[in-house]
Amino acid sequence: MVSVRLENVTKVFGKTRAVDNVSFTVEDKEFFTLLGPSGCGKTTTLRIIAGLVEPDDGNVYYGDRLMNNVPPEKRNVTMVFQNFALFPHMTVYDNIAFGLRMRGWSKSDIDKRVREVAELLRIRGLENKYPHQLSGGQQQRVGLARALAPQPEIILFDEPLSNLDAILREQIRFELRDLVKRVGITSIYVTHDQAEALVVSDRMAIMRSGRIIQMGTPKEVYERPNSVFVAKFLGIATILEGRVEEKSDEGYRFTLAGTGHTLRVAHSFVEPGGKGFVVIRPEYVTLLRIDEEPDENILEGRVEKATFLGSTIDMNISIDGIVLRTFVKATEMEVREGMEVRVRLSPEKLVVVPPED
Amino acid sequence: MRGAPLTRAGIAILTLVIVVFVLLPIFTVFLWAFSERWPGAKLFPEAFGLKWFRLLIESGALVQPLTYSLIIAAIVVVASALISIPAAYVVGVKRFRGREIVESLALMPLIVPPIATGVGILGYYTQIGFKSNIWAVASVHLIGAIPFMFRSLAAAFESVDPALEDAARILGAGRLRVLRHVYLPLITPGLLAGSVFAFAWSLNEFLLTLLVGLPDIVTLPVQIFRYVGGYYIQVAPVSALSVILLIPSIIFLVLSEKYIRAEFVPGAGVKG
């Protein structure tokens, strides 16, 4: 097992910088995710790590070994593909055995290992079928079995779940993370699905236009996005314009543009005096009852829209021309459209991010 | 269904064309070839038999030309495949600029009149003394065979999911082993189709064979034209030769059809 390190990696296709000066380290046995919209360079980055694409600039290390000039077949890395990429002319057995044969394993070792991974992925009994006879979920498992069989140091995932239906996708997510954690392989995962990234990752990097915008644990990145882009891309957020006024021990004062309301926010990526946007996640907004004493970060408004979602109610609250989105538990209180409400924004959770450039 | 009468009319015309220009002539050829006795006034032969085949074999007009034809066709199939596979791989798999130009350039030999290239080739083949042997004939057959082979193979390569190559390389296969274990099995239908065309082309090629092959190399088509002169035609022996010429093509087609069905889609329809 091994760590993976990228140093100032750049790849240019024609006029686009698909990967632009990207550096990061994935620790041994870590589950690392590259998350971003399509065309952000995440797949190219993954293919560079695999050796399928040669970087124009920069270095790729596995542990301390410089891998730049090592062809993919000589790297001990395997990959799970978006469309599974199973060999259509081979049985499930031969698909799983392929990597072992190429590595010159003996027949009996291959037999044993194929049985082992088939068991691990619960696909025993399918060995003699051809890929086109399998369901999408089964194909996915075969693809994963094939990637695990040669006992790679690193396993790469290129949107492995995006061809499955939503229910299956959600199931396999957990299972997949569990599995590679159990086996203990350094994993690098590419996806455009933020929910997926939050579930599977130890750490994640958010990419845009070939660059890494932010890196951290899912919790860090979700709770403290460093830009409007990350805040919008990850989860739901109301993003309001304003100005950072002053810094104190308790955080920053932030004035909302237009309304003049002042909020205390704990974190800011903008220096006092600068313009910025405050990121308000729905769960940082609490509705106050009439009898509760006001303390700080209280706004008054009116329920503009309330949508019943079963366990929660999705609300838009209009406050002097701005609209704040929040969820409340359906059992917690009776909400009607047009109702006057007071809300409190948890200051320790609020973050101010710089304007988009 | 609207348009059904039009479709039916189209099918009827197509059938008519096939009958008049393909089946009827072949039928006549078979009649002539297997006629034992056919007085001029009769519509059909009075007796059937292998008279003409016997005659061809005895006169030496069949065995030698047939052998040459088959050997040359086999060489052409193998050589055109070996030459076309790398080119078809690049054109079918790699996305590069000017790919379309390369593709249409590869078909050029089919547009250029063979007499033009033939005379030119004859010129320098004569100069280097490379003439009147099977290799010389096979080499000129490649001019027409390669475009067919190339086209079939390029289409076959194009139909292979490029992720399969990535998957194979990641799993430890170098480029040659990717070709052998992934591409070759998957392009087999295209390879067979290309082979059928290349084989048929070589078997039927006349003009270039005549120019480069004579005097020693007489293939079936050249032999046929020996029976068809300016003022005479010996219909029966020519028909017998034509039947011989038809057989390999028919066998090849049937075989490839069978092979593609049985091998390429294993257990089709047994969805589990």
Describe this structure in words.
The complex is a heterodimer of chains A (357) and B (272). Chain A has two domains: 225 residues, Rossmann fold; 125 residues, RNA polymerase II/Efflux pump adaptor protein, barrel-sandwich hybrid domain (OB fold (Dihydrolipoamide Acetyltransferase, E2P)). Chain A is 24% helix and 36% strand. Chain A has eight helices and 21 strands. A six-stranded mixed β-sheet of chain A has the order 6-7-8-3-9-10, sandwiched between helices. Chain A has a six-stranded mixed β-sheet with strand order 13-12-11-15-21-14. A five-stranded antiparallel β-sheet of chain A has the order 16-20-17-18-19, with no helix packed on it. The longest helix of chain A has 18 residues. Chain B is globular and about 75 Å long. Chain B has 272 residues and is mostly helical. Chain B contains eleven helices and two strands; from the N terminus they run αββαααααααααα. The C terminus of chain B is likely disordered. In chain B, α2 crosses α11, α3 packs parallel to α6 and α10 runs antiparallel to α11. The interface between A and B is medium-sized, with 28 and 23 residues.
